[in-house]
Amino acid sequence: MQVYLPIAEMSVNALLVLGMGWLVGFLSGMFGVGGGFLMTPLLIFIGVPPAIAVGTQANQLVAASVSGVLAHWRRGNVDVKLGVVMLGGGVLGTAVGVWIFGILQRLGQIDIAITLSYVFFLGTIGGMMLVESSRAILRRRAPTAKRGKLHRHIWLHGLPFKMRFQRSKLYISALLPAGIGVVGGMLVAIMGIGGGFLLVPAMIYLLNMPAGLVAGTSLFQIIFTTAAATMLQAATNQTVDAMLALLLLIGGVIGAQFGTKAGTRLRGETARLALSLIVVGVALKLAFDLFSRPDDLYTLTMGLR
Amino acid sequence: MAGVMKRRLVQAAAALAGLLLGGTLAATVWAQQLVADLSSHLIAITTGFTGTEVVLFGTTDGAGDVAIVVTGPRAPATVRRKQRVAGMWMNTDSLRFDQVPSFYTVAVSRPLDQLVGRPVLERHQLGLPQLQLPVDTALPPEELAAYRSALIRNKQRQGLYAISMGQVAFLGERLFRTNIYFPANVPTGLYNVEALLIRDGEVVSAQTTPLVVSKIGFSAEVSDFARNRPVVYGVAAVLGAIAAGWAAGAAFRRV
């Protein structure tokens, strides 16, 4: 069944897009990540212009993170105060990101900027996760290994504007969560992803937040950064396709339910290892494309952009 | 008897008019040599749109060949060239074309090189090599040619410029028809469909018919909304997503 996408101005197979939404939803439910980093490359692969893939993905992530945060909210796993501080940085980062996006689009460098950010962030985070999870699996087999220190005091903790976050039992500089928020917001705007794969490790390792609160709190602030990104992309670049977002959403929501059930049967480190393999795989594929000679060295853009 | 009389009267009147008006109204007389129309003057892009075909049909006043040129709305376009930079392929140079037809296809009753010479082809922009694509930057000819052929190649890959010429079929000596195909990604706007009658190496008559490609119904409302009230559209998109996410979360709560 073909459906015409009014903003992308192209016709796509609705079942294909629903299926993509389902698959990414399944993986995100299983691993507890947004899955935007898989969806944007998939959309570009089926011919959706990169700018519209990114803008629409932000819209879809609003819905995905709302439905995700509900479950965490009911269990009280959201630190609202910390989320709001991150959010302040997040909205700033999103605005800067959308502005950079527009400039790169006019310069004709947006495609390579998107790809390079993917290769860099996915490669780094995926690689770190791969090392960490394989170590954890090895440690499980050799239980005599020592545990590391629980809390290390580094220069980051000496920053000013200290704030107390009762829910997370933290007393840290507000600049820290706000800074993480800025980076997350820029990722939403430029890469069309929620940034959970970056926010979650940052909150665990830089803020030393209790692990139980991390997923809910990062999803809580992702709702607002993706909402801000959607509005800014719609207003400045007109790259949000509501029809495409709706299709992705339906597939994604259903897939996530199956994924969450499948995820409960996976051990933590096995899940992290599997996820890191997917992330590294995507990064390698994108890097390969970047360095291999394209079929046509020339590209065409209609209109003033 | 009456029929013959009537026809003679008409012929006489036409001859008289031709004598009286001579060359001053040549165009009017020309237009009668070729009459063409489309099966539809509106291509409606609805939610289920997957491309469509429009039939052009017409008649000539005698033997001759027919060429059909379909041109989409013109818009600026940028062609970018990739080069290897530190091992990566990235856009380094670009050229802006001012007036690029978003769609271009030609159909002919016989191969054009058998019909007319180069000057005529160029005057009527018949065929891709003759398509005028003005640029605002001075470039060496070989560079310009590379950008130009890249533009055409990209358009052909998108299915918006025909790779080969279409066929105008004659039914008998005077009646002709051709099918014009518009793919799912056809750009919206006002199209020009030009029918040319060719005799003895010259274009002796021409007729232009407009064709509108427009989004209709839900897809039109969405894109109008997005373009005319972008901020409200953004807010609506976010509210819709929040509602959908909430509904999904609530629906699957007990599953």
Characterization of this structure:
Chain B: Pfam families: Alph_Pro_TM (PF09608). The complex is a heterodimer of chains A (305) and B (255). Chain A has ten helices and five strands, in the order ββαααααββαααααβ. Chain A has helices at residues 14-31, 36-45, 50-74, 80-107, 110-141, 175-191, 196-205, 211-237, 242-264, 268-291; strands spanning 2-5, 10-13, 162-165, 170-173, 298-302. Chain A has a two-stranded antiparallel sheet with strand order 1-2. In chain A, strands 3-4 form a two-stranded antiparallel sheet. In chain A, helix 4 packs parallel to helix 8 and helix 6 crosses helix 8. Chain A is globular and about 55 Å long. The model of chain A has no long low-confidence stretch (mean pLDDT 82). Chain B has 255 residues and is an alpha+beta fold. Chain B has a single domain, classed as Immunoglobulin-like (Sandwich), CATH 2.60.40.2550. Chain B is built from six helices and twelve strands. Chain B has helices at residues 2-21, 26-31, 118-123, 141-157, 218-228, 230-251, and strands spanning 34-38, 42-45, 52-60, 65-71, 74-85, 88-101, 104-108, 166-167, 169-171, 175-182, 189-199, 202-215. A six-stranded mixed β-sheet of chain B has the order 2-12-11-4-7-8. In chain B, a hairpin with a 2-residue loop joins strand 11 (189-199) and strand 12 (202-215). The longest helix of chain B is centred in the C-terminal third of the chain and has 22 residues, at 230-251. Chain B is flat. Chain B starts with a helix and ends with a helix. The chains are: A mainly alpha (305), B alpha+beta (255). Chains A and B meet through strand 1, helix 3, helix 8, helix 9 and strand 5 of A and strand 5, strand 6, helix 4, helix 5 and helix 6 of B.
